Amino acid sequence: MSAVPVAAVETLEAYAAETAGCTRCRLSQGRTQVVFGAGNPRADLMFVGEAPGFHEDKQGVPFVGQAGKLLERLLTGVELGREDVYIANVLKCRPPGNRDPQQDEIEACEPHLFRQIELIEPKVIATLGNFATKLLSGRPLGITRVHGQEQPLTIAGRSVVLYPLYHPAAALYTPAMLKVLEADFARLPELMGRTPQPPAVVVPEPEPEPAVAAPAEQLGLF
Description:
Layout: H1 6-19, E1 38-39, E2 45-49, H2 54-59, H3 66-77, E3 86-89, H4 103-120, E4 124-128, H5 130-137, H6 143-146, E5 151-155, E6 158-165, H7 175-185, H8 188-191
Parallel strand pairs: 2-3, 2-4, 4-6
Antiparallel strand pairs: 1-3, 5-6
Helix pairs in contact: 1-4
């Protein structure tokens, strides 16, 4: 994991507490609570989704519904868990009826996300779905065209690898989409610099040569 100073972790916690009372946009009027983010504040890998849903709004933790369970399964498939990564969303408050984020809401909330990235200092940011991908890449290309294609970027003053992924919700009822997600997830360890080493090749020892008398100088005696 990244060597983030303890002071930075404390600052992330303090920033989360500060954000809990955010009223930058209309979503503050209907939320149960701000869903700041959760996970390892020193994580090398950070996931960014779209917005909290019903269960996230109630529990205050991102990705705790069905999409969250699938995300955990996908993480397990690459030998990672929630405790190894940090998970956040573009929006910190649930839009009414789980509608799409509106542009003014994204603009009001994006400083929170960029501050999180600045404090956590991840090596890889995996965006889940269109909204996070377009915001952080600065490009209008949809997730269908760019998923699984890493992109070196500077975000919040830090060099990172942006890695767009389909949102797990898109794969809940589509087996073909799930296979794509699994294949894209399989590259995460490589992108994090944790590529498993290939197994050592065992070379059989050659048969010993028949003993041949050699001059003393060849035997290292002189």
